Amino acid sequence: MSTKRRFQYLLLTLASQIKIHAIMKHILLLIAHPKLQESKANKALIDAAHKVQNVTVKDIYAEPFSVENYYDDFKRADTIIFQFPFYWGSAPSQMKKWIDEIFMAFCENPGVTGKSLLIATTTGSEYEAYRAGGRDQFTIDELLRPYQFTALYSGMDYLTPFVVYSTAAPNAEEYIYQGAEEYRKLLERLVE
């Protein structure tokens, strides 16, 4: 192959890669776990997320707590994910603080309208516990309703929550592994 042909081939290859990268969507994944390094389930989900292109992961317990720290990633993102362990019927307190102090600033600048919000959570309880008459009395959807309200109120699309159940079961590793695989597949679909 001549030098000119190789150069043209390289240019076409590079152009197609840039085009593919430009049309792929971006995800900003905000993990809110006070002890992420000790976590099995949420750490497995984060490990799965790191395998997907165009996913930026930020640990809101470890990152500087300022609008400027999140601005560029938030602006670029098509989907925002709030990921956290589900306990006491909600997220860890740092998630609420992030919503009140950082997210609210983004509602005006750069704006959230048209972005999607996904809640990704893990729970030690089994699926059957989250229903009327079950041990926890409410469905996960009912308990996550405030996040749906936040999304809809701010002009975002609210996606069906992603939940990994039974993370405290005797065979938790199986649920965690399966959950991480499903999470990776979901993120891959979201960036297409």
Output the CATH class name.
Alpha Beta
Mean of residue pLDDT values: 89
Could you estimate the helical fraction of the residues in percent?
A: 40-55%
Provide the β-strand percentage band: 15-25%
Beta strand count: 6
The assigned structural class equals alpha/beta
Shape: globular
Do you know the CATH architecture?
Answer: 3-Layer(aba) Sandwich
For the largest beta-sheet, the strand count, sense and barrel status come to: 6 strands, parallel
Report the radius of gyration as a whole number of Å: 19 Å
End-to-end Cα distance, whole Å, is 34 Å
CATH superfamily: Flavodoxin domain
CATH-defined fold name: Rossmann fold
Structure notes:
By secondary structure, the protein is α/β, with parallel strands linked by helices. The chain has a single domain, classed as Flavodoxin domain (Rossmann fold, 3-Layer(aba) Sandwich). 45% of the residues lie in helices and 15% in strands. It has helices spanning 3-23, 41-49, 67-76, 93-106, 140-143, 145-153, 172-191; strands at residues 27-31, 55-59, 79-85, 116-122, 157-158, 162-164. Strands 1, 2, 3, 4, 5 and 6 form a six-stranded parallel β-sheet that branches. Helix 2 links the parallel strand 1 and strand 2 (55-59). Helix 2 (41-49) packs parallel to helix 7 (172-191) and helix 3 (67-76) crosses helix 4. The radius of gyration is 19 Å and the shape is globular. The two termini are 34 Å apart. The relative contact order is 0.16. The model has no long low-confidence stretch (mean pLDDT 89).
